[in-house]
């Protein structure tokens, strides 16, 4: 049975539309199958947690389910597919269109948007689902190790004939590796796409915006542009955050062996308005911290970090604020961002922050003593 995307409607009816190689004759590789007009406009509500009102505004459709043979892969399990924004809708269509093909794919987006999760769904939805999936963490390996893993005598690119290879940071690879990939992809293009190997790349930034800095990376992205998708950060699709937060609360509570936690309207508003630089990863960390220290109850603003509670403070509350704590939380957030941006290197992070390495090291030790470690 070919790959199909099935949209489960609230009345248990299914609308099936073909994807990938099943698009209409003559359509290009970027062609997308679409739902009938009447089903596109139909909305079904997301169930609220017990005692919680339904969220206002547009409601997400029940999860699109990818079907391959007798297997079903539900989007409901993945926060990167939760929400009502056009970007989430387009991401589902992108998976449906490209799942049945083996051409390389590029996912563009900031850290914390679960690009590897998207790559795994794309692999599981493909005809190669029973073949291995390899994830290469380019952040944690040196240039020589990466070269050996990918293009060495027993490198993945030459030895993995079936399955998927995911490389998490295309534009940060050493330029020699970017050049090798450019040559390899060009050879594959001219030979024809009879290979059962798929390459999926992720990039934190779009080289088209920084062409002069790295022309090789720019050329690679231009080569992959027709097979690329840009995942917007949470701050650009805040309408998705309430749905993602509720989904995460349910999953985290289950993981920690706790009963369901709700969230007050005020706390949900604070979470929605916050500028999540760490995207889904940061949001999950905050919610897990809140659930860990609470019995089953409504999460309110008081258990959220002060950087979130007071992110859009327009007036001082009558009972005052804890300014030292707010400053400390904000400082810790900046240090966490710098460490993440520099792959954990204290030397590079200290330069970004304008601190001496010794000063940064003292602050990290203090956070560790307070049971709030960053490393």
Rounded mean pLDDT is 78
| CATH third-level topology of the largest domain | Rossmann fold
Shape: globular
Q: Count all strands and give the number.
A: 11
What are the segments in which pLDDT stays under 50 over at least 5 consecutive residues?
Answer: 1-47, 60-69
Q: What is the number of helical segments per DSSP (H or I, 4+ residues)?
A: 14
What is the end-to-end distance? Answer: 47 Å
CATH architecture of the largest domain: 3-Layer(aba) Sandwich
Provide the CATH superfamily of the largest domain.
P-loop containing nucleotide triphosphate hydrolases
Widest β-sheet, arrangement of strands? 6-7-8-5-9
CATH class category label of the largest domain: Alpha Beta
State the helical fraction.
40-55%
Name the descriptors.
disordered N terminus, Helicase, Ruva Protein, domain 3, Rossmann fold, 4 domains, five-stranded parallel β-sheet, 14 helices, alpha/beta, globular, 375 residues
Give a brief rundown of this model.
The chain has 375 residues and is of the alpha/beta class.
Could you describe the 3D structure shown?
The chain is an alpha/beta fold and 375 residues long. It folds into four domains: 1-99, no CATH class; 102-232, 3-Layer(aba) Sandwich (Rossmann fold); 241-321, Helicase, Ruva Protein, domain 3, CATH 1.10.8.60; 322-375, Orthogonal Bundle (Arc Repressor Mutant, subunit A), CATH 1.10.10. Helix content is 40%, strand content 13%. It is built from 14 helices and eleven strands. It has helices spanning 37-41, 86-98, 115-124, 143-151, 156-159, 175-191, 215-224, 241-255, 265-273, 279-292, 306-309, 323-341, 346-353, 357-369, and strands at 4-8, 14-18, 64-68, 71-74, 105-108, 133-136, 162-167, 196-203, 228-230, 262-263, 298-299. The strands form three sheets. Strands 6-7-8-5-9 form a five-stranded parallel beta sheet, with helices on one face. The chain has a four-stranded antiparallel beta sheet with strand order 2-1-3-4, with helices on one face. β7 (162-167), α6 (175-191) and β8 (196-203) form a beta-alpha-beta unit. It is globular and about 70 Å long. Residues 1-47 and 60-69 have low confidence and may be disordered.
């Amino acid at each position: 049975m070919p790959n199909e995307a099935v949209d489960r409607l609230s009345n248990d009816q299914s609308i099936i539309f073909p994807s990938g190689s099943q698009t209409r004759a003559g359509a290009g590789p970027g062609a997308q199958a679409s739902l009938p007009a009447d089903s596109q406009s139909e909305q079904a509500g997301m169930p609220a947690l017990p005692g919680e009102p339904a969220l206002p505004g547009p409601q997400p459709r029940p999860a699109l389910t990818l079907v391959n043979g007798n297997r079903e892969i539900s989007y409901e399990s993945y926060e990167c597919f939760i929400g009502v924004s056009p970007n989430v809708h387009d991401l589902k269509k992108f998976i449906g269109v490209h799942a049945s093909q083996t051409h390389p794919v590029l996912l563009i987006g900031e850290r914390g948007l679960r690009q590897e999760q998207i790559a795994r769904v794309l692999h599981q939805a493909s005809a190669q689902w029973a073949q291995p999936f390899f994830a290469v963490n380019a952040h944690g390996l040196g240039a020589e190790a990466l070269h050996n893993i990918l293009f060495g005598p027993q490198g993945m690119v030459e030895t993995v004939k079936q399955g998927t290879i995911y490389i998490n940071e295309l534009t940060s690879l050493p330029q020699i590796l970017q050049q090798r990939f450019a040559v390899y992809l060009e050879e594959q293009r001219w030979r024809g796409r009879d290979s059962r190997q798929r390459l999926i790349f992720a990039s934190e930034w779009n080289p088209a915006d920084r062409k002069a800095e790295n022309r090789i990376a720019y050329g690679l992205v231009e080569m992959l542009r027709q097979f690329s998708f840009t995942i917007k950060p949470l701050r650009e699709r805040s309408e998705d955050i309430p749905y993602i937060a509720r989904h995460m609360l349910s999953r985290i509570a289950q993981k920690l062996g706790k009963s369901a936690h709700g969230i007050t309207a005020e706390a949900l508003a604070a979470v929605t308005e916050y500028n999540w630089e760490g995207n889904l990863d940061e949001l999950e960390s905050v919610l897990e911290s809140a659930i860990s220290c609470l019995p089953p109850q409504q999460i309110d603003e008081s258990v959220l970090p002060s950087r979130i509670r007071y992110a859009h403070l327009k007036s001082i509350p009558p009972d005052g604020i804890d300014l030292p704590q707010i400053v400390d939380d904000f400082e810790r957030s900046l240090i966490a961002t710098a460490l993440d941006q520099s792959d954990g290197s204290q030397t590079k992070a200290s330069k970004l922050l304008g601190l001496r390495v010794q000063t940064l090291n003292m602050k990290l030790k203090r956070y560790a003593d307070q049971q709030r470690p960053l490393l």
